[in-house]
Amino acid sequence: MSRVVYVNGLYKRYDQALVHAEDRGFQFADAVYEVIEVNGGCLVDATRHLDRLERSLGEIGMLPPMSRASLLTVIGNVVRRNGVYDGLVYLQVSRGAGPRDFAFPSNGRPTVVVIARRQSRSAFLAKAAKGISIVTMPDIRWRRCDIKTVMLLPACLAKNAAAAKGAGEAWFVDEKGLVTEGASSNAWIVTEDGALVTRHLDERILGGITRATLKDVAAAEGLTIVERPFTPSEARRAREAFITSATNTVMPVVAIDGDPVGAGKPGHIAEKLRLSFHHGAEFLDA
Ligand code: PMP
Questions:
Q1: Could you confirm whether 148 is annotated as catalytic?
Q2: CA 18 / ligand 1 centre spacing (Å)
Q3: Reduced 3-state DSSP string for the chain
Q4: Which residues of the chain are under the pLDDT cut of 70?
Q5: Pairing between strand 179-182 and 169-173?
Q6: Which atom of ligand 1 is nearest to the CA of 206?
Q7: How far apart are CA 215 and CA 129, in angstroms?
């Protein structure tokens, strides 16, 4: 099936889906985005994702480019036209194109791009069965990581450095020696007494949608959730560790900086949460 990408009102063939050379997303990272899981042809937690998109836009002084209903129609069209049953939707809104100038254009038109991509469920399950390794590195990002901008060069550098060491994700560590979050995920540990620990929300981390839904799921299962930072050494000694993100849901962490976490294999609590996660999520027909 030929792939179709939505760009500013048009559904274009993948190889013809272009944005302007002076798009502010391209020149200034003046853009925000969302990644939404597609599961069985449904959008997972679309309401929370679109709430966060509106918040990100608001934080950089932009209005939503279209109504929520229109955006959902576009997303649904892209998902269906690409035959995506299991996969993800990538949605980006930039402040648009204009002569390169730091000043925001007064009459700019935002650029809206929606891409849908299939992801193999069996590959995901195989990855989750093994778990991933983490390497930690200094958090060199800016102080507004709560805004989901496309300013992802630190994440790219971190993920490539992690991959070079055979790890599946990097965890950033702040100047106090505390884990902030993953390069593209939130970081969690399970303490000896079975409590879930994840850093509190502030401007140093992205408020993950998977994190929010998992808190609901874990609370419904009677698990204790503590929102506080932890160090890499506490994580290495934890009973379990895992990451959350829309594309990974709950992914067990089996090693940190070369040291095994727990038994060095996916933990029971992470596994249980991975299996129950979708029962607590909102499903919307795409
Ligand atoms: N933190 C960062 C830095 C991320 O890029 C992501 C993934 N977008 C997350 C956390 C997890 O967010 P979500 O659960 O909404 O995918």
A1: yes
A2: 26
A3: CCCEEEECCEEEEHHHCCCCCCEHHHHHCCEEEEEEEEECCEEECHHHHHHHHHHHHHHCCCCCCCCHHHHHHHHHHHHHHCCCCCEEEEEEEECCECCCCCCCCCCCCCEEEEEEEECCHHHHHHHHHHCEEEEEEECCCCCCCCCCECCCHHHHHHHHHHHHCCCCEEEEECCCCCEEEECCCEEEEECCCCCEEECCCCCCCCCCHHHHHHHHHHHHCCCCEEECCCCHHHHHHCCEEEEEECCCEEEEEEEECCEECCCCCCCHHHHHHHHHHHHHCCEEEC
A4: 1-2
A5: antiparallel
A6: 1
A7: 22
d(CA 286, CA 252): 28
Reference 202, options 182, 180, 184, 217; nearest CA is 180
Non-local CB neighbours of 28 within 8 Å, separated by 6+ positions? 102
| 208 in contact with ligand 1, CB cutoff 6 A | yes
Cα(272) to centroid(ligand 1), Å: 21
Distance of CA 14 to the CA centre of its chain: 23
Alpha carbon nearest to ligand 1 atom 1, residue:
185
pLDDT in tens, 265-285: 999 999 999 999 999 999 999
- Residue 1: what pLDDT? 55
- With a 6 Å cutoff on the Cβ, whether 185 touches ligand 1 is yes
Report CA Rg, the chain: 19
* Residue among 88, 186, 200, 205 whose CB has most ligand 1 atoms within 8 A, to mutate: 186
pLDDT of residue 108: 87
Identified catalytic residue from 148, 159, 176, 215:
148
